Amino acid sequence: MKMLSTESRKIRLAIAAAFCLGMPLLPGAGTAMAAQAAPSQASEVAPPSALSAKIDSKAKEIENKLIAWRRDIHEHPELGNQEKRTAKLVAEHLRSLGMDVKTGVAVTGVVGVLKGGKPGPVVALRADMDALPVKEQVDVPFASKAKGTFLGKPVDVMHACGHDTHTAMLMATAEVLASMKDELPGTVKFIFQPAEETPADFEPDGTNTWGAKQMIAEGVMDNPKVDAVFGLHVSSSYEAGKLYWRTGPAMAAADQFWIDVQGRQTHGARPWQGVDPIVVGSQIVMGLQTIISRQSNIALEPAVITVGTFHAGNRMNIVPDEAAMTGTIRTYDEGMKKDIHERIKNTAESIASSADAKAKVKVVELYNAVVNPPDFTDKMAPTLRRVAGEGNYDLQPKSSASEDFSFYQQKAPGMFFYLGVTPKGEDLSKAAANHSPHFFVDESALITGVRAMSNLAVDFLNMKQS
Ligand SMILES: [Zn+2]
Ligand SMILES: [Zn+2]
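That is the input. Now the predicted structure with zinc ion docked in place:
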């Protein structure tokens, strides 16, 4: 019975999970995913390293600074590819710690390199710096009043996904690790990237790149070559200070599609004289849903197709010429992803042709699935267990949101995990989700993020020595 209640709680958490490009998971997928990820939830805890006590005390010492950075960044949020003020703050801090710093990577990205006193491998730690076009409605003294421009339109801006905390935590991690530089057996690369939520200055069209992908194109994983990479995300789905992760597919791939239906305009009273793109488009919307419900093997991995916009017509008694829709696709398996893309094209074109209309379909791949490699994740999980402490970590339900951290994972073994930020005692199922104007961060959680990133880096460097 305990199994049952844990399971249903996990499914509820999964439904509540929502970050970045994404929103909730398919209800009911909980059982399969718990079984898949079970091996990493073994109870092995890493023994403390020679530096872990030092990490903890240094992190505690600078906790007030960490929170002050977070509040400053929170009050001054900037949209994707516009993170100029944030990048300047980061770069000045990294320079003050004596690092080699590169700025203007992928527009506003900052990379700092900390060379340890002993030879060894290279570990990268990543934070994203961008905010969202959201009007903050949280009652805190440092609430955002910022404005920005999103795809040419004036918008309110808020750190509604918690990237302010990611940036502040990585700045603090840099300070912690710099304080023990001489004892580090290797190099730590600090990656502060822009535009994780997609850029604010152009729309993805399949030809342009941004954020993590652009950072990689500009060489962030080379010179020195990165041997492992870690990233974290704060989440309202979990209690403040608790850590969650899973092996294998952890977050979905996100792709975008456009479907334009070409009909033939006529009088609304005489539809037989034209071709109605609204009716054809509606059939396509329904047809697309059967790709998931009837044609995809969702016992292998879940998948989602959502039509998010549908525009047509300008008057009640005119059958218009065209209908246009856009939507998102979430998948965890590369083969299923390609298959679904094909089926979307085929479904839209076939339905349109059955009504004498034409459908033009375009699919653009945005982010790959975040996949934590089992061997690497199993090797590093004992560190996270030690950092969190007994009872403060658990299996992360699969998330249907997406993250461009996935691109770093294609270049080096990489692990992505979650840090809970909802105040203890609050009903997690009712906590305002990431991306909500009410998204709230319990700052007492942030020190755990700093300890986690610092310990992962040190343990990885030490592991490579032995
Ligand atoms: Zn987000
Ligand atoms: Zn995010």
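The longest helix spans residues 334-354.
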